[in-house]
User: Fold these one by one.
Assistant:
Number 1:
Amino acid sequence: MKAVGIGLVGFGTIGRGVVRLLQENASLIGDRTGAPLVLRHVADVDTARDRGVALEAGVLVADYRGLLEDDEIQIVVELVGGTTVAREIVLGAIEGGRHVVTANKALLAVHGKEIFDAAEKRGVEVRFEGSVGGGIPIIRAIQEGFASDRIESIHGIINGTSNYVLSKMTAEGRPFDAVLRKAQEKGLAEADPAFDVDGTDAAHKLCILSALAFGYYLDLDHIYREGIEKITPADIEFSREFGFTIKLLAIARAKDGVIEARVHPTMIPSSHLLATVDGAYNAIYVHGAAVGSTMLYGLGAGEMPTATAVVSDAMDIARGLLRKAPRRGSGLSVHNSFLARGQLKPMNEIVCHYYLRFTVPDRPGILSRISGILGDHDISISSVIQKRREHARNVPIVIMTHAAREKNLRDALAGIDGSDTVQAPTQMVRVEPDLA
Amino acid sequence: MKAVGIGLVGFGTIGRGVVRLLQENASLIGDRTGAPLVLRHVADVDTARDRGVALEAGVLVADYRGLLEDDEIQIVVELVGGTTVAREIVLGAIEGGRHVVTANKALLAVHGKEIFDAAEKRGVEVRFEGSVGGGIPIIRAIQEGFASDRIESIHGIINGTSNYVLSKMTAEGRPFDAVLRKAQEKGLAEADPAFDVDGTDAAHKLCILSALAFGYYLDLDHIYREGIEKITPADIEFSREFGFTIKLLAIARAKDGVIEARVHPTMIPSSHLLATVDGAYNAIYVHGAAVGSTMLYGLGAGEMPTATAVVSDAMDIARGLLRKAPRRGSGLSVHNSFLARGQLKPMNEIVCHYYLRFTVPDRPGILSRISGILGDHDISISSVIQKRREHARNVPIVIMTHAAREKNLRDALAGIDGSDTVQAPTQMVRVEPDLA
């Protein structure tokens, strides 16, 4: 039984998890693969830091380039992150005829087409289960499990930091800044959490999911994204009064060849399964024409969950290698020729429901003025909460609309916010009352 | 681009779904596979009935045997159900060097080892995603997604009929018989629902999941099973008072090479994700040492969801055929040599919490007698509900226990039910307060 050689580049948190899993589950992994997976080299610029896992002498190296030319390495695992060095590593590995496993969503969102084209040409496999949803096997589910079906929509909670912060804000009624700071202290949010809370990380992942589900490789810059920074405890409380929970959702829909893709805080019915996904958990809710509604749930990040996905990918390639058929040909789309169809719907043309919180002076006639402007833009109101406060100069008026066009909503808000009707910019959160 | 030929045996509900999916999504399926999937023949003893889908002349035949020798057929799809003819079809197809897709859980639970051994020997692939959880890609998830991890436990809602009936009973407070009759009238339960409501169907599926997760092929007869017939509206109501919801769970756990496998109504915390899985939906909650808690959710049965799984399996085999490497070697275990380890824990040795509803005469001293007997058997009580009823001769005493051994519990109940303390046999439902 010959061994399959692994070269790991990037010895950070996930890299450490991969080393641990390969060591701790070595016998199980060997049994299930049909041959042992042997870690030939680990490359990281920092060779000094003690990660608490032992590597044999000579395994840890500073320069990754040797790994790409090592005949004992059949699979290169890229876990450095980012889109520059990671791209060189992945393309270098492919060029040398090595198979690749990566968990790098940014890399695939930005350079995916180039990478999968190169892999196709060279006849090697690039696997990326760890790139979306940590240990949740969502990539396989879409590539293979739902391959026969026409997927209609995806609603994903795919950023653990945002979900953790929103869950805490919801449970404890505390503001965004305070909860985020606490999460950072606990190591549950990065020192620089910008990509997590502003929707960029979720947009990277949505790019990958859209390509898989709809065969359309989206330009990252065209995916509308809005983060959770603007959500206040008041919005969470009003949302609850309407029976909704706020989640950062990555949404993609396909209809008649037109794709809708967006990331933003979204109010969803509190009774919906997605609304119960709390803390660092992720969930991807996929609706297919034939399969109906499905959901995959699990820890969306972290050392061991993501390492599980990465090592499982390596095992899958290794099984193929042992049968002399490593390539299953499942790139970003199920089949490469299927990519690059459809067109992206401009954000202004999407239709959804809206939650609007106006900050207005506490005097009669304001609601009538606001609803008049909304009506002028074809936006009809489904319900209103108007709270009175003793001696308060400004009070909130909260409105839930029926389905409306984004363009109309924006025009109406521009009109309202530009007038002296309101005392502060209006808060707007999109609402998805029906997720299927 | 050469076509891949499909032969379908069994033109019932799922068979019809497969035909529809192959027809309606033909272009998508061809694109994603890399070649069209062509339905060469459909065999069913009933060639007269109109199923509302059109087949070309000569495609529908009464005798399946021709399909097993047809050189234009590379993949045989078995959807006749049962364990006799289905076994002949599957073994015949394998013998002739044809790949197989089946959704037949009973067949795999009873003859799985024989079938996968034959497939291994002949070098063909047997895929069975549709056998558990309808369109939920749980087989792939365990075979591949979690392959690198040590799975510790599985808690599955994997019988749609039982879950539908229990959900309705819970929502409407009506008794089992009435809800089941209504479900039958609506076509949501079979005319003979015995296997569904008595736990047999779930046990078949648990057999498959255990083999995949733990590499241990269980003897179906050794899996403890208990159905939902005995659950009353009163149990559901008391359960709610304790903060629990009753679900028919298929449970499998592995620890130190010992496997625990059982199917029975189970009280789980109402706040747990599994408790929110209602109606005909299925969900499989898998806990892995590294990946943590995960859950896959979707429609667990029905024409189109199951057809999705079946056709996706066929596409997967077809993709392999086009690359001259159809076999991925993923039988009932990830790797065949991994099967048949571990031993099954006898039901008497399991440890869980118990809900006990005693029917007792309304007079003092009874609780003391019952708790005395429980105490004698090392069973400690966590809470008690004792309802008084005006003018009632018999009243319920409901007890929740702490963790106890099944053997002790049974001995205690035998003692209590054998005495004149109770007026009717005691109701017992197992409780899993901590599912992870």
Number 2:
Amino acid sequence: MAGTGREFFTVKTVAQALGEFRPRHRTAVETVTLSAAAGRVPVDEVRAQQPLPGFDRSSVDGFAVRAQDTFGATDAIPAYLQIVGQVRMGAAADAAVSAETAVAVPTGGMLPTGADAVVMIEHTQEAMPGTIEVTRPVAPGEGIVRGDEDLAPGATIVRPGRPMRAQDVAMLAACGIVELAVHARPRVAIIATGDEIVAPETATLPPGHVRDALSVPIGALVTEAGGQPTASAIVPDDRDALQDTLQRAIGFSDLVVICAGSSVGGRDETAAAVDGLPHAEIWCHGLAIKPGKPTLLAHSDGIPIIGLPGNPRSALVVFRLIGMPLVRRVAGIIAQPRPGTVRARLARNLPSAAGRLDVVQVRLNGDRAEPLFGPSALLSVLTAADGYLIVPEDANGLSDGDPVDVFVYD
Amino acid sequence: MAGTGREFFTVKTVAQALGEFRPRHRTAVETVTLSAAAGRVPVDEVRAQQPLPGFDRSSVDGFAVRAQDTFGATDAIPAYLQIVGQVRMGAAADAAVSAETAVAVPTGGMLPTGADAVVMIEHTQEAMPGTIEVTRPVAPGEGIVRGDEDLAPGATIVRPGRPMRAQDVAMLAACGIVELAVHARPRVAIIATGDEIVAPETATLPPGHVRDALSVPIGALVTEAGGQPTASAIVPDDRDALQDTLQRAIGFSDLVVICAGSSVGGRDETAAAVDGLPHAEIWCHGLAIKPGKPTLLAHSDGIPIIGLPGNPRSALVVFRLIGMPLVRRVAGIIAQPRPGTVRARLARNLPSAAGRLDVVQVRLNGDRAEPLFGPSALLSVLTAADGYLIVPEDANGLSDGDPVDVFVYD
């Protein structure tokens, strides 16, 4: 009776899972408008057709001049220039600058013909009506943004495989690009398995039952990673029922998440059901991570399937570390984001077994990171945490006072 | 002619703006279902009505026993127990444990009456059909999650004023709480001003004009901060037209953003138009930040108004630092998130004036942070950046090789 069900035949490290588990499926291509483009992943490189800002502009409020007319100007010996016009915002500069003349120009205004610099208004004084004194010289190009300085024709605006940030959509807007081809958001099916699982809206629990605590938060993490949870189902610990549900899910999903039973029986049924899918490959059954060892990574015809541990806390830890990067990859993202951390000092000794990556929940108290312990069945350890730290595979634990990097939940 | 328009009469620091600019308006209260709850801000504290998991459960696959029956058990001298039943997942435990007996129980199964511990299956062997040998003692409580161990009645599930994270909605799901009262998402009106500004979809630019590069990315940052951009408009540099638009925007918005003209004239019109709104107070006109000095913070009857600098790059920098926290505050968020950073070494000297906070865009090259320079009119400096670092007010610059914390754009 003892034994076989608890063995993990194909245990991999987290680094292996992130680097080597590469199912080939990617989401379809769709077109989005600019206002919906932030966070989306371009399919193609987009290059500038025209220069930006498109015309030479003043970068200050002042006077457009020929720089040479200001050379040597000081407070004591200013250069005198005749004002021959004024540029209005949003209009062509209709006056031209010639020797010993100046044209008033606001920040962002078009540079008049003949001018090669703009003197800031602070470095001028009105000598008499229609004439200014310039009290500091300007070099050619000073006070000016060249017409192709922000973007030259042919320059790259956005790259494929990298989610667009606010500044990227700003540049697209500036260029007049108001729609573009992006990867569709990954549709993610979330399947909870277990004879003991009932829907969250169940008011009174039958004996021995618990509510599905995972489908909704996993859906939230899917959304955070740029995907969309499309369907969720609760399936009993029955191989045929699970395989049937999986088969249908594979048909309309880009990624499938199974919140697997935590008992040996539940895990066995999950692995067997996945193995029976078309063109299925179980890539690993067991991860060198704590909590989260009973994780299954597989694919069916290139569509990734992640079988999460049954304990809600372990499942959420594994989905953050492994599932969210998978959602991003399916969406065509090439380089995963570098998550930021907050520095802290460990508030107690933290033993850890070498060869296994430990994810330790912590509460932040000033600059001290206080580890939170408890069975991995407890969600409350996660809700009490401000973030987590990672004890890598090659470490034998950490000591009280050690500097640590905390990944903060926001 | 020189002077007055360029002066900033009420310059504040970034720390003052974040700590002391506190318009009183908050969004309304609405009810959301659980699947839409992640990231939303609860209005009230929510406490547990019932314990979780709700019944004593096994945390391992094994045998429920009386701990005392295993005391002293070893490989050499095991304890022999008679199997008197088996617990199924999702069912009441119908067998009871008495002296010298055991009941098989899966992970998550209900603990049978009479048992006070569960022996892991790895520490047992089948001695003969119906009898197991236990080869290691268990202490009372071992292998068990108590019925109120995850959550005791009366314990806090979520707190008001803090956005709900994945684990918080997991706990709500486990408790069967499928809707709750949250602050509505802040509706944010975005108004671009300037005679030179045309809509992004303008295919051919008239002379001296540029496309509105700010409304869309500011909208994206609003969304990222939990708000929703509700309306955008482009208004010429005309005080009455702007005041009219502002007045209407105030009527249906929780926060108003003005992407102000960058010329003196444009700034003057913005300040005057804001000042003319009902119960208006201009809190600051000028921030000690580079880039971004020409920032205006005001409110009309408690509804915050942020006037951004005209340069798109400055505007995006200021909106990240000041605008996003304002959106969160209006949504009822009490404690702002602690953003994580990536450590790097500065790749060159970085001069900076004391008394002013400098936001420096950087490209990350391995562990080196390479500052990007260029006029603040250039969006391309932002699109080329991987993140930014902050040189605080009290620093006189940083040196090549200094360790720096980089806030990464994702």
